[in-house]
Design goal:
HIT family, subunit A; HIT-like_sf; ADP-glucose_phosphorylase; 342 residues; three-stranded mixed beta sheet; alpha+beta; zinc; transferase; ten-stranded antiparallel beta sheet
């Protein structure tokens, strides 16, 4: 039976409709992430082909050269750029109906090269390497937060062409903006409203609910975090990693908790690769606003979305997503998908 469910954080309705999953299809999308042959601009000894380096973790603490393990560089083809003059959040006036609707394209857009090995995917990296990637995320979020022109930062990974990746060498990205995006405004408003009503963090309450009250959406748990399929997911098998300890600011999370989240992320991605035959995917790291990053109502977390369906006209027209898999069924499938220890 179909259900309408509300995402209480962003006040958005979704339709959970398992019967949609039984529709006939005239075609199948068999696209998988295809590895292009190397070397590429992200490979060692090709450092001159990237944008300027902003951060790196190198062997034996060396400051430069091709001996890096993780490298962060300015995107050579950025969506926004720091060499554009900032207007300090004030709109540049356009003519006519669009008056007040334009700002210069100021911002920061960086690439996190996750490994020097061109042919290793994210899930093939050893845990120490993934932990280094998370250290790079923390270092760059910390640095960007010190620039008071930035209000919002998004760390994200696109894996596979269908998920938006333009290069197959394993990498993720970081974009910082002088404005707050609509979805982040909604998330802040929703979590703040819940806190004002209950004096509790909504994700802390979700963790308690999914661990103690009802474990139907629990996928995995560890001493540092849990993985759940959210109550009202937009996409089939969407999964969240929720740290057990409340902290709104990812940049200040202790190393043991960061490493625990990194291990959980690898576990979930391996489960998805096994269950769904190497799907394209995105993961997004959500942290509080940069100019108000220590708050009791926001809770940092990681959202993982495998690309298994196509967003169509109803979703684009209404903003209401149809999900053909209930999160309870997703959680059962993923929790029962066993992967090798690593």
């Amino acid at each position: 039976m179909s259900e309408l469910r509300s995402d209480m954080i962003v006040n958005r309705w979704v339709i959970i409709s398992p019967r949609r999953g039984a529709r006939p299809h005239d075609y199948k999308n068999d696209e998988r992430a295809k590895m292009q042959p190397g070397p590429c601009a992200f490979c060692p000894n090709h450092e001159h082909e990237t944008g300027p380096e902003t951060f790196a973790i190198r062997e034996d603490g060396k400051l430069r050269g091709p001996c890096w393990r993780v490298r962060v560089v300015a995107n050579k083809y950025p969506a926004v750029a720091t060499d554009v003059e900032s207007s300090d959040g004030l709109c540049v006036y356009s003519n006519g109906v669009f008056e007040g609707c334009k700002l210069p394209g100021f911002g920061s857009h960086e690439v996190v090269v996750e490994t020097p090995d061109h042919y290793k995917t994210f899930t093939q990296l050893p845990m120490a390497q993934i932990e280094d990637v998370f250290k790079a995320y923390q270092a760059r979020v910390t640095c960007l937060s010190q620039d008071k022109r930035f209000k919002f930062v998004q760390v994200f990974k696109n894996h596979g062409n269908a998920a938006g990746a333009s290069m197959s060498h394993s990498h993720s990205q970081i974009i910082a903006l002088p404005v707050v995006t609509k979805s982040m405004e909604e998330a802040v408003a929703g979590t703040k409203s819940y806190f004002e009503r209950t004096h509790r963090c909504v994700l802390c309450d979700i963790i308690h609910q999914d661990l103690v009250t009802c474990r139907d959406r629990l996928v995995a748990e560890s001493p540092f975090c849990i993985a759940v399929c959210p109550y009202a997911p937009c996409f089939p098998h969407e999964t969240w990693i929720l740290p057990r300890t409340h902290n709104s600011n990812f940049a200040t999370v202790p190393a043991d908790q960061i490493n625990g989240a990194a291990k959980m992320l690898k576990t979930l991605l391996l489960k998805m690769e096994k269950a769904f035959h190497l799907p394209p995917y995105n993961f997004m790291l959500h942290t509080a606003l940069l100019d108000d990053c220590h708050v009791p109502y926001y809770h940092w977390y990681i959202r993982i979305v495998p690309h298994l369906i196509t967003v169509a006209g109803f979703e684009l027209g209404s903003g209401c997503y149809i999900n053909p898999v209930s999160p309870e069924d997703s959680a059962q499938l993923l929790s029962n998908t066993n992967v090798d220890d690593y």
